[in-house]
Amino acid sequence: TQREGNKKGLLIALIITAGIMVLEFVGGLFTNSLALLSDSGHMLSDTSSLALSLVAIWFANRAASAKKTYGYYRFEILAALFNGVALFVIAGFIIYEAYQRVLEPQSVASGSMMLIATVGLLANLISAWSLMRQGDVKGNVNLRSAYLHVLGDALGSIGAIVAGFLMMLFGWYIADPIISVVVSVLILKSAWGVLAHSVHILMEGSPEGVDHSEIKNLLENIEGVKDVHDLHIWTITSGLDSLSCH
């Protein structure tokens, strides 16, 4: 099933991300690279987020009860919301650290930094491919948030490679914090989309592409129906919409 595919894709991405997180953290300390350290910090958030997304899918599979009449589907949306907030926090921390380094640029072992970042980039691309191949990154907001985390890691690795190249050729050590800020802004842009969509669902907004007036007209055209009022259309979780009216 699609949900099983989502779980498999997340598990593969989790294992790869956790391994690269350790590699980039140790590599960042060794090379004194903020770009690598910030990316490893982002990966720490991602490892937690991917694990949370897996737990969310497990919760969503639990049956409904008398107290939880819709089941635990909303846990997936809560996980996506948490992931979006986590991305904002991580990006803010990276920008702050980058500002400190702009004031006081530090030397970086650019060659080793580029090598480690290249390994990280390849691993991130494999993780992203796994999520796209196994899971529903377009239709499931929880999985999409995890996918964006992985893409953010890939951007971080690309940024580290570019920064390392500039430092190696021109000695521009300020490139390290500048690239980190650029990557952080791209991460924030993606995080905002996930955050806004999650809040829209939790506020029980109408599903995207659904015309409230058109639905009302269709219902009123049913034989025997005189009037439709108190029409509510909302999303329980990604791919599961609901409707009620009188």
TrEMBL record:
SUPFAM superfamilies, per the entry = Cation efflux protein transmembrane domain-like (SSF161111)
- The answer, when asked if NAD is one of the entry's keywords, is no
Please, which domain of life does this record's source organism belong to? Bacteria
Which Pfam families does the record match to this protein? Cation_efflux, ZT_dimer
Topology class, membrane:
Multi-pass membrane protein
- Supply the alphabetized keyword list: Ion transport, Membrane, Transmembrane, Transmembrane helix, Transport
Domain Cation efflux protein cytoplasmic, chain residue ranges per copy: 207-237
Residue intervals passing through the bilayer: 9-30, 42-60, 72-96, 108-129, 150-172, 178-196
Which residues belong to any copy of the Cation efflux protein transmembrane domain?
Answer: 10-203
UniProt-recorded Gene Ontology molecular function terms: zinc ion transmembrane transporter activity
**Record's Gene Ontology CC terms?**
plasma membrane
Is Nuclease set as a keyword in this record?
no
User: What compartments host this protein?
Assistant: Membrane
Output the PANTHER family linked to this UniProt entry. Answer: CATION EFFLUX PROTEIN/ ZINC TRANSPORTER, RE54080P-RELATED
Family statement drawn from the similarity comment of this UniProt entry: Belongs to the cation diffusion facilitator (CDF) transporter (TC 2.A.4) family. SLC30A subfamily.
* UniProt-recorded name of the protein: Cadmium cobalt and zinc antiporter
- Source organism (scientific name): Priestia megaterium (Bacillus megaterium)
Gene for this protein?
czcD
